[in-house]
Amino acid sequence: MVVVDGRWRYMMDKRNKKRIQKATGIELLNVIDEMDLKKLCEQSLPNHISFLTFEKVEWLNKTLDKFWPSIVEATEKEVKMRLGPMLVAYKPVEISSLTLDKFHLGKTPPKIDGVRIQRFREGQVHMDMEFKWGGSGEIVLNIGFMRTKLPVQLKNLSFFATIRVIFQLSEVIPCISALVVALLPKPKFQIGYKLNVIGGNNANLPGLGDMIEDLVNSTVADQVEWPHRIVVPVGDTPADIMSDLGLKLQGQLKVKVFKAEKLKNKETVGRSDPYVLLFVRVLFKKKTKVIHSNLNPEWMESFLFNVEDTETQTLILQVMDEDIGADKELGIASVPLHDLKPDTEIEITQKLLKSLDTAKVKDKSDRGSITISLKYHPYTKEEQVAAMLAEQNELKAREQMNNGVIGGAMDAVGGGVKMVGSGISAVGSGGSKLVGTGVGAVGSSVGIVGSGVVKASRLVSSGVKRLSSSNRLVSTTSTPVNGSPMHEVNGISKLKEV
């Protein structure tokens, strides 16, 4: 009887402990928020779990309907003025010039499906809004493309995103001293439009649609996708508050690109000529040297990037094949920065994918891998100030360069200089000049476009002669600059499927 009684007590104690553990777990789930649960479950979070915390705000939509004409009139001129220089900064290298001719928001106002108060902080209110807009807006771009000027129209605009608005509170009426506006990276924003070349045929312009799509998405993501944001002062906002609300550089990421293995060959004759484009922000894209005719290349090159927010930012690695005309993408990989430990170097090997949007990719074939090392160093206050000043100076230098070169396009890369539309291209200090109706352009007709010249000169030096655009035989012996002539860093290459 004693044995039975002891066994019974043991079982009841064990049962009670399990009940206590379950009750504790349930209580924790009761207080956990959406962000904490996603961090806890990572990729294992079931799709059917949702947080229905958004409240309907039909009154706000009715207010937008009434105020929309005034909002359009007040913002269109300002937006057009700001977008002009921004388009030049993000201009793809395939385009010789890019200007904004028209920006019209249309008569249809956006709709806010719901609002959620995300969190309260001292002096701040964070609000997320489910935002959608399918309007009659119109954008007209004037593009220098394929030896001509093309007016390109983007119409039937639509936009879907979750927008975060931060209210900086004040004791002075209207009780708000500043607003911070940003797009949340998850779920990813969507931009829709219909592309139309005014007076032309889209079918005769290969690659134009991809370039425009990349330009639109990259510009929006790199400017207003969190942690990037727009800070709007309300009234006489103190300078220290504006500074605190603005985006600041938090640290430096050192990336060393070692090698890639078992790359997929994209050449009909011979083997691919791979290089790597890498970036945290598209605006500050960098590039390795080109390794010719090699599917297992080794680069052993290091690069430095400024980082604003390790929790949300990602390093993107595009392995490209240098080719005449448009380079091809061999594979792409991404590395989230949230797991990096300060001042600790790690080496990783990432599998290359066809696209970062794996849900839409049907081709699951092996594309090889890339091996890199990462080391993140958090900035001290002094280092942060110096880094932000250096970045501002770099952007100012780019702007001055764009304004001072014919066609508005000049990229300085290391010691190599590329001049588009001048009729003369200089490669290195000992390189020969490509003048007149050869590979170089006369006036603004045909620019020297980075990788095409490199491969053309290599083929010529091997005894192969190519016809230029004027059907004349060209023979050159351009000298590389630091082993990689005329490579482009600041342009935008689309993360496209190949």
Structure, explained:
This protein is of the alpha+beta class and 498 residues long. Helices cover 26% and strands 32% of the residues. It is built from seven helices and 22 strands. The strands form six sheets. Strands 1, 2, 3, 4, 5, 6, 7 and 8 form an eight-stranded antiparallel beta sheet that branches. A four-stranded antiparallel beta sheet has the order 12-9-16-15, with no helix packed on it. The protein is globular. It starts with a helix and ends in a 24-residue tail after the last strand. Residues 405-498 have low confidence and may be disordered.
Topology:
Layout: H1 2-31, H2 34-41, H3 58-89, E1 97-104, E2 111-121, E3 124-134, E4 138-145, E5 148-169, E6 176-183, E7 190-197, H4 208-224, E8 230-233, H5 239-245, E9 251-261, E10 274-279, E11 286-287, E12 298-307, E13 314-321, E14 328-336, E15 346-351, E16 369-378, H6 381-404, E17 410-413, E18 416-419, E19 424-425, E20 434-435, H7 450-461, E21 466-467, E22 473-474
Antiparallel strand pairs: 1-4, 2-3, 3-5, 4-5, 5-6, 5-7, 6-8, 9-12, 9-16, 10-11, 10-13, 13-14, 15-16, 17-18, 19-20, 21-22
Mean pLDDT: 74
Shape from CA axes? globular
Question: Largest sheet at a glance?
Answer: 8 strands, antiparallel
Portion of residues in beta strands equals 25-35%
Q: Helix tally?
A: 7
**Ends apart, CA distance between termini:** 76 Å
Main structural class: alpha+beta
Secondary structure: number of strands: 22
Into which percent range does the helicity of residues fall?
25-40%
Low-confidence stretches: 405-498
Radius of gyration, in angstroms, nearest whole number? 27 Å
Element-level helix/strand string = HHHEEEEEEEHEHEEEEEEEEHEEEEHEE
